[in-house]
Specification:
The protein has about 375 residues and is of the alpha/beta class. It has 3 domains: about 1-265, Purple Acid Phosphatase, chain A, domain 2 (4-Layer Sandwich); about 270-325, 2-Layer Sandwich (Double Stranded RNA Binding Domain); about 335-380, no CATH class. It contains 10 helices and 19 strands. Helix 1 (about 20-40) runs parallel beside helix 2.
């Protein structure tokens, strides 16, 4: 049985003030293309369908289009709520949708119930576990001690009546980490309560495959069969070196699982460049990649640049972030030439003049020195 594993769609997300709706529509088209070509039996979406609990109109329309297109194919569609989603809103009309082989789980009512599918090897049970907090399980398990997310996930699994002699696939949206394994994270993810909410990935070891959501880089944790799908697009510059993809899983007989990645290509890639402005705007650099990518540009010029953003945007129209990094900013105070001079012989104006020259590689002009002297005279002690 083949199925596709997606996660962290974050429909409606805005990155540095730029809407990702058209980028999302573009990669959803690629996903549908894979679906029609490969014809898997199921599509799993492991949470964070939307970027906000109350999504905007455009986001709702795009999800409606995408879900309608998915349901129009022969594959079953299984979706869970992530920590960004409103579980109640996402669960709306879930019983009606299940008649069309679209299975939505936003709210957990104490235990998981499987969606069971058949292939030539028998049954495969898909267990849908939406994002949970320990407090949401109170009252379901009597006096069971649930002190953290690991306890919460373990308790739900133990009380769901899972037959691990059969083939079982879990869909879950939590922060899972393996012993001695530090998963690769990005700035666009949301911490729950720091590391306290990390769930031991070893809890999932008996599942044939665990389709995880929450981390935006596709990666395995605690075993190749315990895997984050990753987001379909780069949602922060901490992800600019990530390769985005859809995970394709093929389960044969019990114990036989293979995993591969289907690449996704955005309209505009996201990347960073760093250096002096003359070099970054030169033809030599521009020919290396698409200048219409979403850009973070870090300028390392020592001198001030008039209208730096305008000059950068004239060659990189989709620049999102412009930062400045002075290569001399980390100079030690000893480099100002004061080691052998008595402190009492050095005025504040002397100190500032030497600091200015060390950073700017030039002396202050008469006008600049006049401004600094006037400011110092207004402060206690003067120059």
């Amino acid at each position: 049985m083949k199925f596709m594993h997606l996660s962290d769609l974050h429909i409606g997300k805005t990155v540095n003030g730029v809407s990702m709706i058209e980028e999302q529509r573009h990669v959803f088209g690629q996903i549908l293309g894979y679906l029609r070509t490969i014809k898997p039996e199921a599509v799993l979406v492991a949470g964070d369908i939307y970027d906000r609990a109350v999504p905007g109109v455009e986001a709702v329309r795009l999800f409606d289009d995408f879900l309608t297109d998915l349901a129009g194919e022969s594959a079953a569609v299984l979706l869970i709520a992530g920590n960004h989603d409103s579980p109640e809103r996402l669960s709306y009309a879930s019983r009606l949708l299940s008649r069309e082989d679209v299975f939505l789980r936003g709210v957990l009512d104490g235990k998981m119930r499987p969606v069971t599918m058949d292939d030539e090897y028998g049954k495969v049970n898909f267990w849908l576990l939406p994002f949970i907090k320990p407090s949401s399980l109170r009252g379901y398990y009597g006096d069971a001690e649930i002190d953290g997310c690991s306890d919460a996930v373990k308790t739900v699994i133990e009380n769901s009546g899972i037959d691990f002699d059969a083939r079982n696939v879990l869909i879950s949206h939590q922060f899972y980490a393996g012993a001695g394994i530090d998963p690769i994270r990005s700035d666009s993810e949301t911490d729950f309560v720091g590391g306290l909410d990390a769930v031991d990935a070893g809890i999932l070891s008996r599942f044939d495959y665990a389709a995880l959501g929450h981390l935006h880089r596709a990666q395995s944790v605690g075993g190749e069969n315990i895997r984050y799908g990753g987001s379909p697009l780069k949602y922060s510059f901490s992800e600019w070196k990530h390769e985005k993809s859809v995970t394709l899983v093929d389960i044969a007989e019990k114990g036989s699982v293979s995993v591969s990645a289907l690449p996704l290509t955005p309209i505009h890639d996201m990347r960073e460049i760093k250096g002096p402005i003359d070099k970054l705007t030169s033809g030599e650099v521009l020919k290396d990649a698409d200048p219409e990518d979403y850009m973070r540009v870090v300028l390392t010029d020592r001198n001030d640049i008039i209208d730096a953003m305008g000059k950068i945007r004239s060659v990189y129209p989709n620049v999102m972030v412009l930062d400045f990094e002075n290569p001399d900013a980390d100079k030690e105070i000893g480099s100002l030439g004061l080691e052998d001079e008595p402190v009492q012989n050095v005025t504040v104006l002397d100190l500032f003049s030497r600091f200015f020259k060390e950073i700017k590689k030039t002396d202050m002009s008469a006008r600049q020195e006049k401004i600094v002297r006037e400011l110092l005279e207004k402060t206690e002690g003067g120059a």
